[in-house]
Design a protein that fits this description.
Two copies of one chain form a homodimer.
Chain A (H helix, E strand, L loop, with lengths): L6 H5 L4 H8 L6 E2 L12 H15 L13 H15 L8 E5 H13 L5 E6 L3 H8 L4 E8 L2 E2 L1 H10 L4 E4 L13 H11 L5 E5 L15 H4 L4 E6 L10 E5 L2 H15 L4 H13 L2 H26 L5 E2 L7 E5 L6 H10 L2 E2 L1 E2 L12 E5 L5 H18 L1
Chain lengths: ~400, ~400
C-alpha cells in the first residue's frame, strides 16, 4: 500500500507535537506544551444564548447549504472591525470565511504553489503552516526572526537569488517565539517586497491578545497589493467553531473561492450564524480585555519565575501579547535532551525542532503561558530550571 | 498576477452551476437546477434543543480545540449504524469526521494523487468530485454509468491499460443521474478490482434516501481491502453543519489524519457535539422516513408529468431514491440550447455538461425533485416539455 500514496503525503513526518501531547496526558505533569487558549474564558452562556436565538429567528435557513464565501453579516463584522481598529478599508467582497485560519494556509498553497516553487517562511515558524504548505511541495526558504522581527539581510539574499511566490509571517506574538515585528522592521520588509510578485501572508491569530505596547502597522496598509491577511476567532471567541477568514484582492479571491469550493463547499453555516449573533449581542472588546488581563499576569509570572530559577545564560523572549514565549539554551545544549530530563521532574514543553523546516535538534523550546495559573507557572518553571541546571 | 497562480488552479474552469443558479434567483422561475435537500424537513426545534443541552451539559469543553479524528461519540454512532443497517463491522478507529463529505474527496486526492496518476470516475459523475480531484491533476478515465450501474467492459479496458489508484463511485441514487448499481453490477466491479492496488471510493450521501426497492450490498462487504466509504449528514439531518465522514483501514487512515490536520486541524467540534446529542435524543430513522415519503411522492409526480408532457423520444431514469433524475434528449439535441429556451418559459435545470470530465455539450440534463412540491413539479415539467417540443 505504501507506494500507492502520493509523494507529498509520504514526505510528511508524523506529528511531533501529537507525540509530545500524549506524554503530557499524565495529570501530575505541569504542561507548557499545549497551544490552546484558556477554556475558562470561553463565553459559554453567551454562545448558548446566541445559538438558541438564531434557531428562533432564522429557523431552517441556518441549516441549509450556503455560499462558499461565507455569511455576509459575519464578513461585514470583520470588515467593520478592520476599519475601526486599523483604519483599513476592506470591502466584504475581499473577505472569505475559512474553516479556521489553518484552512487559509491550505487554500493559499493550493492556489499558488506548484511543486518546487519558492516560499519564504519565518524560522522558527508555525508548525501548522509548514505542514499545510509542505503538501504542495514547495522549496522552503527559512528566514530568521528574533525580537524586533525578520532578518532583512537574509530576506534580501533570498529575494536576490530566488523568485518566491509567498512570504509567510506571523507578525504579532508569533507562534512559537512570541516575538513581534517592529513598525520599522515591517516597513523594511515591505520595501523589499513592494513591486515584486511575492505575496506576504500576514497570519494574525493573536493580534488582539496584546497586553502591553502599541498596536503595530499592518502590511495591508504599507504594501496592500502584495498582502493577504489571515484572521481567526479561535483565540478571541472559541476554537471549536473552526472559523477564521482571509482577505485578498478580487483576482486572487476568485481563485481562492474555487479552491474553497473544492475543499469543503463552505464552512459550517450554523456556526457562522451563532458567532455572528454572539458578536452582535456582546462586547467582544470587553471580552478580549478579560482574557488579556489574565494572560498578561500569567506571562509576567512566567518571566519572573524564569529570572528566579533559570541560569543567567538562558535567553528568553518577553512577548507583548499572545500565548507563547521562547527559550534559547546555551549553544550546544539540546532541548530534546532537556525534554527527557524535564518529564522526569513532571514538567513539559515543546522542543524547538518541529518549528524548523529541517526539523533539526536545537537549543530552543516553546513555553505556553495561556493555560496555567500563576502558582502552577511558578512551580513548573522551578522544576524546569532544576532540569536545565542538571544539564549544565 | 495570472502567472503567479498554480497550474492546478488556472486549469479549473469557473463553476458552471454557480452561473446557472444566478439565473434562477428570479422567483418566477421554477427551478429543478438546485441540488439542495428540502429545508422544510430540517429538524430545527430538535437541533435547537440539542444545542442548548450540550452547552448545559458540557460547558466550555465543547468550545475547545479537539482531535483531528473527530468526536468519539459521533464516530461510535456511525460505527453502530453500519453494524445495524449493513451488518458491517467498522471499528471507530477506521472512522474520520470530515468537513462535509466534500472534504473527504479533497483528503483522498491529497493522500493518493501525484500529478498524472490515473483515476477512474463515473460518467456522468458528481461535479464536486471532478473539481476536488482536478486540484491534484490526475489523468481522468471516465467510465459510463447507466441504469444498473457501471459499464464493466469499459472498466475492464481501463484496468487493462492503466493502473488507476482510485475508482470514484456513487452507487446509490447517483448525482447527477439518480441511477444505482445493482448487486450483480457491484459484484462484477468488485471482481475486477479485487487484488489490484486500486481503491474504490464509495461515496454515499443519498443511500438513506431510498423510497423503493431493496438496500444493496456495500463494496465494503465484497471487496473490503480496496474500499473507502464516504458518508454525510447533509441529506439526512442538515447540510449547514458540514459534517460527513470517511471509513478507511489503519494504514490509509494514518495518512488521511495527517492530511486532515494540514487542511483544517479538525471539523467544527461544537457542531459534532450538537449533532451527536440530536442523534442520541431523536429517532433518525423516523425522521428519514418522513423525508423519503415526501421525496418519493415528488419523484412520482415528476415521472408521471414527464410521461404526460415530454415527447416519447426523450429518455429518463426512474430512481429508487435520492434527489435527482436524468433526462436524455434525442441524439444531436443540445441541453444547453434547451436551457436557453426553457429559461424563457421560466423553468430551469442543469445541462449535463459539467458532469462530464471533458465538459462537452451533450443531450443530457439533471432534474432535481427534492425541493419542489407536486403541483410545482407538474407545472415545471409541462413548461419544460413545451420547450423540448419547440426544439424538435
Amino acid at each position: 500500500m505504501e507506494n500507492a500514496f502520493s509523494d507529498r503525503i509520504n514526505d510528511v513526518p508524523k506529528s511531533f507535537i501529537r507525540e509530545i501531547l500524549k506524554v503530557t496526558i499524565d495529570a501530575s505533569i505541569i504542561s507548557f506544551a499545549g497551544g490552546l487558549p484558556n477554556r475558562k474564558f470561553f463565553p459559554v452562556k453567551a454562545l448558548q444564548k446566541a445559538a438558541f436565538d438564531v434557531f428562533e429567528e432564522a429557523g431552517n435557513e441556518i441549516l441549509q447549504y450556503s455560499n462558499s464565501e461565507g455569511y455576509l453579516g459575519l464578513r461585514q463584522f470583520i470588515s467593520d472591525r478592520y476599519r475601526q481598529r486599523d483604519g483599513l478599508d476592506i470591502p466584504v467582497e475581499d473577505i472569505l470565511i475559512t474553516t479556521g485560519s489553518q484552512q487559509g494556509l491550505d487554500l493559499l498553497g493550493k492556489t499558488f504553489l506548484n511543486e518546487g516553487d519558492d516560499l519564504i517562511i519565518e524560522e522558527p515558524g508555525y508548525l501548522g503552516a509548514i505542514q499545510a504548505f509542505a503538501m504542495y511541495r514547495p522549496r522552503f526558504h527559512p528566514v530568521a526572526v528574533s525580537e524586533g522581527g525578520m532578518d532583512t539581510s537574509q530576506l534580501s539574499q533570498v529575494l536576490g537569488e530566488r523568485q518566491p511566490k509567498l512570504l509567510y509571517t506571523v507578525t504579532n506574538f508569533q507562534n512559537p517565539s512570541g516575538i513581534s515585528y517592529s513598525d520599522a522592521n515591517r516597513r523594511a520588509v515591505a520595501d523589499q517586497i513592494r513591486g515584486s510578485s511575492c505575496l506576504i501572508i500576514q497570519d494574525d491569530p493573536y493580534g488582539d491578545l496584546r497586553f502591553s505596547g502599541e498596536r503595530k502597522v499592518s502590511f495591508k496598509r504599507i504594501v496592500p497589493e502584495n498582502t493577504v491577511l489571515l484572521g481567526s476567532f479561535s483565540k478571541t471567541v472559541a476554537p471549536a467553531l473552526r472559523l477564521g477568514w482571509m482577505v485578498a484582492p478580487p483576482p486572487i479571491m476568485d481563485k481562492l473561492v474555487i479552491a474553497k469550493q473544492a475543499a469543503d463547499l463552505h464552512s459550517d453555516y450554523l456556526a457562522q450564524r451563532i458567532l455572528h449573533r454572539y458578536l452582535c449581542d456582546n462586547d467582544i472588546d470587553a471580552h478580549i480585555a478579560t482574557i488579556i488581563a489574565q494572560y498578561g499576569k500569567q506571562k509576567e509570572a512566567m518571566i519572573s519565575a524564569i529570572k528566579d530559577y533559570f541560569p543567567a545564560a538562558v535567553q528568553f523572549t518577553n512577548p507583548e501579547g499572545g500565548m507563547f514565549l521562547w527559550i534559547t539554551l546555551p549553544e550546544g545544549m539540546s532541548s530534546m535532551t532537556l525534554f527527557e530530563a524535564a518529564i522526569k521532574k513532571k514538567v513539559a514543553f515543546v522542543p524547538g525542532t518541529p518549528f524548523y523546516v529541517d526539523r533539526k535538534d536545537s537549543n530552543t523550546l516553546r513555553l505556553n503561558f495561556s493555560c496555567s495559573d500563576e502558582p502552577t507557572i511558578v512551580e513548573g518553571i522551578r522544576r524546569l530550571g532544576a532540569s536545565i541546571k542538571e544539564l549544565f
